Write the structure tokens for this entry.
Amino acid sequence: MKKLALLACALLLLASCELPSPPAAPGEETLDVYFLDGVRFVSESRSVPGDTILKRVNALLDSMRTPIDASLQPLAPEDLSILRVIISFNTATVDFSPQYAQLSELERSSLCAAVSRTMFDFTDIDYVRFSCSSEFLQPISDRYYNPYTVMFDDSLIRFNAWDVLLYFPTEDRTGLAAVEMTVKTEERELSPEQLLAQLMRGSGSYLAPFRGAIQTYTLTMRDDLCTVDLTPSPVSGFPIGQPSDVYAIVNTLCSLGRIERVHLTIAGREPSNYGIPDCDGELRFRQDLLR
């Protein structure tokens, strides 16, 4: 099925035509809105109004539901909407409502290709990617659309890159190992959330703090204080932690520069409640733990 979706998407991008449409009202801007005719994209000139990019992309979605030529296949389901559009540098991320997840792989690929083609006509962007309720779903989790192709290589996308130090617990969990990594993001600055997410994924032979038993976490900032609350995984439960697990998070966040203090809790409680000594309250970077 995935191969079929990729083949159909390629055909759609390469083979398209335009049907005659009713003339626009004087002074009214029109755009090419795409529908399916068999395996081809066919465009109709339509008005796509909106004073913000979110309103305009939702207006585009509405136009895609009702082709003037009744023989054409609409690409946007009636209950589908766009929750947000985020533009970072030359890339737009379009976030669909949960109904998007119910579409087949072929329907998703066709919809995304059609939306991106029209967006290039009214936005100053080079690439579009798509998500569903802020999550990237298959089969297009790593696809970037540009006006001519579907890209599976992000090397041409404009990223900012930071060389950072992540601190992982040593194998015996008595200290910390500093590992230099490069973190790429489309954002203008590296956030504490992005740095912590990278740490919690682990790196090769270096295991994440608490041996990866963290399901989720919340992070808040107030001046130079970062507050982190960890939620144990209901499947694996919470292992017996060590101070090195806590300080792996503390040292990593403090290495960001603008964070000087970290207050870490586990399910809203201080680490001492889980048998982890000397880690309650506000903590600072500890050089003596480095091995």
Observations:
- Residues 2-156 form one domain.
- Residues 196 and 249 are 7 Å apart (CA to CA).
- The helical segments are 2-14, 53-63, 105-122, 192-200, 243-254.
